[in-house]
Design a protein that fits this description.
Order of helices and strands of chain B: HEEEEEEHHEEEEEEEE
Helix content of chain A: 10-25%
CATH architecture of chain A: Beta Barrel
Number of helices of chain A: 3
Strand order of the largest sheet of chain A: 1-2-3-4-5-6-7-8
Number of domains of chain A: 1
CATH class of the largest domain in chain B: Mainly Beta
Largest sheet of chain B: 8 strands, antiparallel, barrel
Radius of gyration of chain B: 26 Å
Strand order of the largest sheet of chain B: 7-8-9-10-11-12-13-14
Radius of gyration of chain A: 38 Å
CATH class of chain A: Mainly Beta
Number of domains of chain B: 2
Largest sheet of chain A: 8 strands, antiparallel, barrel
CATH architecture of the largest domain in chain B: Beta Barrel
Distance between the termini of chain B: 46 Å
Helix content of chain B: 10-25%
Structural class of chain A: mainly beta
Oligomer: heterodimer
CATH topology of the largest domain in chain B: Porin
Structural class of chain B: mainly beta
Order of helices and strands of chain A: HHEEEHEEEEE
Strand content of chain B: over 45%
Distance between the termini of chain A: 91 Å
Shape of chain B: elongated
Shape of chain A: elongated
Number of strands of chain B: 14
């Protein structure tokens, strides 16, 4: 006869458990500092930066002793800080020895030879400002100095060259710029019999987009 | 319905942009991305501004009153990111800089007493190691030398402002004598080099580097030529 003896125990046990399970909610004190067990959401926003400048330019390059010809080039720049930018430029032009040939002296194999140059330069924005067009439109602008080292190749010869220039840049919108620039390209050449430093001035107009 | 759509559209368009809460007394809005451009408006503490883009260390924002202007990074750093989280924008920007692994730079120096111009691109494979590819050209009085080599750069203290580095590289060289010289023969060969140098971080993404490099050119099976390169340059992270 085990059942009649167990039943009272079971009832007693159940009645003892039921209040015991209900009680802790009332008796355990609220934690003073609620524990934050949730993992913090680390949200990295995507903010588009437009520090890279890609552009083209065209102008006039005057090569010392050989006259001036049109030139055109490409520019890739990176704006590292608000004051400094670095840029690579590559351009092509022509050089002619026509004026020497008129006197009966040929300097080059042909009357006109190709010229190509590339530079890596550092620029410094000097005077930030604004250009006002009429009453309602203003564009930001800056006067900058730029200088760098590169290579000028013409008549089959490479010349290590230095360039130094001054320009003004205006931005009608945030992603587009226009500029006017004057540079002096300097390199040593012995093409006329004596090794001397040649100054070659270039004046250009350029357009560029920011990415 | 049309009215609803008209009101809903600008909100939808703005959702993609990051919004931050102004925590400083005010944000100053400049007309352009630079300290020299004049301040034309402000946004007060507690206002939300929308970030439209960035140019160098300047952020273009749109205020609650629909005014657009440029704010410096220093001021943006104090703002709070969305959802009232206590993570400032400064933390977010710092994460952004740490995520940049690609670098590009150029330098100028001397190579066997001729001027040398070089450009390099590097990828940071580890906190202490960068893999670099360099192209260089030296146009001397008698010949032009071109170099192309890869290198492994070790940077034992990448976090210090003046950070030393060591590099080992190998590649190819080409030497072309001036066309005006007689018996001008182009020489090609392998080159190996070792370098020590120093980086100086001007900002987090822009640095200067100075290095001394010893090149060993394998001209043929019997002979090698040794050249020392000293150069200085600038580089930056993308």
């Amino acid at each position: 006869m085990p059942k009649p003896t167990i039943l009272p125990f079971l009832v007693a046990a159940l009645s003892a458990i039921a209040p015991a399970t209900a009680r802790p909610a009332e008796s355990v004190p609220e934690p003073v500092i609620p524990a934050q067990v949730d993992r913090r959401e680390v949200h990295i926003p995507k903010i588009s930066a437009n520090d890279i400048e890609i552009g083209a330019y065209t102008g006039v390059l005057s090569v010392q002793d050989f006259g001036a010809k049109s030139s055109s080039g490409l520019r890739l720049g990176y704006h590292a800080t608000e004051d400094f930018f670095v840029e690579g430029t590559y351009a092509r032009s022509k050089v002619s020895d026509q004026s020497f040939r008129r006197l009966g002296i040929a300097i080059f194999k042909t009357e006109e030879v190709d010229l190509a140059y590339y530079y890596l330069s550092i620029g410094c924005n000097l005077f930030p400002g604004e250009v006002f067009l009429g009453k309602n439109w203003a564009m930001t602008s800056a006067v900058y100095l730029v200088g760098g080292v590169g290579n000028v190749k013409f008549n089959g010869e490479n010349h290590t060259a230095y360039n130094f220039g001054l320009g003004i840049r205006a931005l009608p919108v945030d992603w587009f710029s226009m500029r006017f620039e004057i540079r002096d390209h300097m390199f040593a050449s012995d093409i006329l019999g004596k090794n001397e430093l040649k100054h070659n001035f270039e004046m250009t107009l350029g357009l560029a987009g920011y990415f | 319905m049309c009215v609803l759509v008209a009101f809903a559209l600008p909100v939808c368009a703005d959702e993609s942009n990051e919004r931050v809460l102004v925590a400083d007394p005010y944000l100053e809005l400049h007309t352009g991305p630079g300290r020299g451009y004049p301040i034309f408006d402000i946004s007060e503490r507690g206002e939300r501004v929308e970030i439209l883009g960035r140019h160098t260390d300047w952020f273009k924002v749109r205020t609650a009153r629909r005014r657009e202007g440029w704010v410096s990074r220093a001021q943006m750093e104090a703002t709070l990111t969305g959802a009232g989280e206590k993570k400032t924008f400064r933390d977010v920007l710092f994460d952004d800089y740490l995520a940049r692994r690609l670098e590009f730079g150029f330098s100028f120096g001397t190579f066997k007493r001729d001027p040398l111009l070089s450009a390099h691109t590097g990828y940071r494979v580890h906190d202490n190691f960068v893999v670099e590819l360099t192209v260089a050209q030296s146009a001397g009085d008698f010949s032009t030398t071109s170099l192309l080599y890869g290198a492994l750069v070790s940077q034992p203290f990448p976090d210090s402002r003046w950070s030393p580095f060591f590099a080992l590289g190998a590649g190819r060289f080409t030497n072309t004598p001036k066309s005006t010289l007689v018996s001008a023969i182009e020489t090609k060969g392998d080159i190996a080099n070792a370098a020590i140098g120093l980086r100086y971080y001007v900002t987090r993404q822009f640095f200067l580097r100075f290095e001394a490099k010893r090149h060993v050119a394998l001209v043929n099976y019997d002979s090698t030529n040794h050249y020392t390169e000293l150069s200085a340059g600038a580089a930056f992270f993308f």
